[in-house]
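Posting for a labmate who doesn't have an account.
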Amino acid sequence: MSATKAIHVSYRNASKISRNGEGLRHVEWMGDCPKLEFLYLRDNYLPTFFGPTGLDLLKVLDLGNNEITSLDFLHHLPVLKHLSVNSNRLTTLRMPVCPNLEFFSVSNNYLESFMGMPSQPALTVFSCCGNQISSFAGLPALPSLECLRLPGDPDPPAPPPPPPPRAPPPPAPPAPPAPRAPGARPGHHGHQHRHRERTRH
C-alpha cells in the first residue's frame, strides 16, 4: 500500500482534522472524508480547496492565511455553517447560496465591492475588515444578519474585567441584656420565696 493511500484511509473516519501551519500546497491527500465536520488548515500555501470528496457533513472550515483566490469550492459543502478565509487573495465575493452558512469572515483580502455575493439566508455574522470596499453597493439581502464588520472598523473592545467579590457583611452586634425591674436585686426574689414557705410550717 502506498504512503498516499495510507493517509487517505487514516482520515476516512475522522470527524476533525487540524493541519495548521504545515506548509501545505494542496489538499488531495485528504481523499474521501464522509464523516468530517471540522477542518482547520490555517497558515499554509493553499491556492484552492478543490480535491477532497465526500464533505457532505462539513460544518466548520478555516482556510485563514492561505493563497485562496476563489470561493467556487462552496458548491461542494452543502451544510457548511462557519467559513473563515481571512488573509487570502480573494478579489471577488462570487459564490453560491449557502443555506446553512451562519459565520463568514473574508477580512484582509483584496475585495473592492460586494458584487457577486448572493443573499445568504442564515448568515448572522459577516466580517470584511481590511479590504478596499468603500460603499454598500452590491451588498445582498441578509435577513438573519446580527453583526456586520466593515473596512475601517476597529477591533472590538476587550470585555471589562469582572467586578471584585463583595466583602462579607460585618458580624451582628451581641444582643443587649434584658432589663431588670426597678429596685430588684439578683437572687432577692428566690430568698423571699423560701422565707414564705418556712413561715407556713
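Reply:
Got it, the C-alpha cells are right above this. The two ends are 120 Å apart (CA to CA).
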